[in-house]
Prior knowledge:
The chain is mainly beta and 482 residues long.
Amino acid sequence: MKIKLSKTLTTTLIAMFLASTVYVIMPAHAATGSVSIINPLDGTGNFNFTTAQKNVGDAFLINITLVNGANISTWQLGIQWDNSLLNFVNMTLPSDNIFFNKGPVISPADNSTPGLVIMGANVGAGQTPFFGSGRIAQLALKIIQAPAGGQSVVTDIKFEGIGLDTFFLDPGLGDISGNYDWINGHYKYTSTAQVQVHDVAVTNVAPAGTSVINGSSLNIAVTVANNGNFTETFNVVVTANGTNVAANQTASNLASGTTTTLTFVWDTTGWALGDYQIVAFADLPGDPTPADNTVTYGIVHIVTAGAGHDVGVLSIVPKNPAAVGQGYPLNVSVTVTNNGVGGFSETFDVKIFANGTQAAPTQTVSNLGPGQNATLVFVWNTTGWTVANYTLSATADLTGDPTPADNNVTYGNIWVMFTGDVNNDGVVNMKDIAACVAYLQAHGFNSFAGHPNYDPYMDLDGSGRIDIRDLLIIILNFNKHI
């Protein structure tokens, strides 16, 4: 920052300064007025234009406006901007400027530093200082850089060097700049040109069934979308375990913002029995977002003609996702499905296991219709089970199921804790009580499974909720150890 004054204003102020022997130190106090950079078109400090409104080379006006001025005999303004975006045109005093009737001595605008202009004025000899509100000066800047399509360029138009290049003085040359808030402006120039984007996506893959009898056909519907702003023509591919299920199809002249659904007919003649992962792909070279061009459906089974019976386990979900106190029950939900293509209703047994040992009594699903699901709740009583990590799993037992791989699902690890031992050090003591109390104080009662504050290792009774009962379990087992 450098201090700039024009010759006229410099001479005047130096003479006044030499005649004075008092240095004025500004006390700290709240601002009583304001000086703002204002857009005369809307009265705000924002200069927001689009390429539809203004072109490179066009100029715009900026008012520097005073509110609640008091005892001002001299002003100087330094105003700064990004000179790669805007160029200086001129800075003038409007006819209604605050000194218009005070015979002002004017320091012409100095724009010798790119991106900065400094200008000043003081009241003429014998004139009284200014009190009130009004325009101080008016600045014109010219746009010299346009943004890329759909983008913006921005810069602050701001006061520079408050107290140095920018200041107010009273008649005794006291700096009164601190009496005012200096409020900057903001320039934004936005291109309205449309960004041209090629972008397609697969939004859905829907086989007509999850099983197909070997030698018969299965329809697979694939929905694709045009998310760009060009009309697109592109190939769509569907594979099973990496091999095309049928000839590629073409989505022709798909308009921007629209979708279309193509149906592939998978003739399974000659395909081996087994499980096949179905994947659909929209092939548009140069697509900038290729991740959404591919969707994986999942597994379709090819079965023999007599194998219309097919069940599977969809999920296994314990009520507490991580732990249960030794001796307490843990509810485990298992969802099963009938994937058969022969139209058979199925009756079959379902079991859960912990580390391969059956953890609850067998349950039977009766007359589950084709395409239907059922959810069973098992109660694993952990009394007598060793403190350890256990891998939970579930099985659906249907004799002769041609696709047994989907009859088993593994959940993961569940820790059977020593009852009340929340810190897992083998003994229930004040450390465990302190840990539980600290948790309840921090997060409150009744945090539940799925809540962000839920800590499964504080849920000692496996209820899926942390409450006063868990604290009582610690107290009741105090001083017990492995």
